[in-house]
Amino acid sequence: MQILVAVLWIMLGATSAGAIPYEDEVASTDANVDFTQAAPFTRSLAKLGHAWAQFDLATMLKNGIGVRLDKKEAMVWYRKAAEQKHVGAMRNLARLYQVGTGEAQDPVHAYFWYSLAAVSDEEAKKVRDQLEHQMSAE
After folding, report:
1. Contact at 8 Å (CB) between 111 and 135?
2. How far is the C-alpha of 126 from the C-alpha of 37, rounded, in Å?
3. Interatomic CA distance for residues 109 and 95, integer angstroms
4. Is there a contact between 78 and 60 (Cβ–Cβ < 8 Å)?
5. Using one digit for the tens of pLDDT, what is the confidence trace for 39-94?
6. For FRET with 13, which of 38, 93, 130, 138 sits at 20 to 30 Å CA-CA?
7. SS (H, E, C) 107-126
8. Distance of CA 121 to CAs 37, 85, 91, 117, 126, Å?
9. What is the CB neighbour count within 10 angstroms for residue 73?
C-alpha cells in the first residue's frame, strides 16, 4: 500500500523536489498539480510519517489549498514534521505560535521553534532575535 501511495504521489507531481518549501511560496509550485486530488495522497503519506508530506499537508491546511482551511490541524502536522527536524515546518510552526491561530499568541513556543530552526535557517535566526528583543522589552 505504501508503494502505491508513493507512486500516486509522484504521478501527481508532488515529490519533495517540487514540494512546497515555505508557507508563502505555494504559488511557485507546479501549476499542473491539482491540490484537491493530491490532498488524500498527501494525507496518507503524512500519516505514514513522511516529514515532507506532513509539511505539505500542513501548508495546504494553513492556506486552505485543496482542503478546507484549518490552522489548528496545520499546527499538528507542522509539529509532526518539525519533530523530524524539518526546518521549514519548525519555522512555520513558530510563525503560527507568534501570530496566534485563533487563540492567544504564544511567544515562548514561537521562540522555542524559531531557535531550533535557526540552527540552519538564517531567516529564522533573525526573526527569533527580533522576538527575543520584543519579549525582553515587555
Report:
1. yes
2. 37
3. 10
4. no
5. 999 999 999 999 999 999 999 999 999 999 999 999 999 999 999 999 999 999 99
6. 93
7. HHHHHHHHHHHHCCCHHHHH
8. 32, 12, 9, 6, 9
9. 15
Torsion angle defined by CA atoms of residues 33, 35, 40 and 42, in that order, rounded to the nearest 10 degrees? 70
Torsion of CA 99, 104, 107, 112, to 10 degrees: -90
Q: Which amino acid is at 12?
A: L
Q: Which residue is listed with cell 505504501?
A: 2
**Which domains are assigned to the chain?**
2-14+32-137 (1.25.40.10)
Q: Is the pTM of this model over 0.70?
A: yes
| 3-state DSSP assignment of residue 21 | coil
Residue that has been written with the C-alpha cell 509532526 in this structure: 80
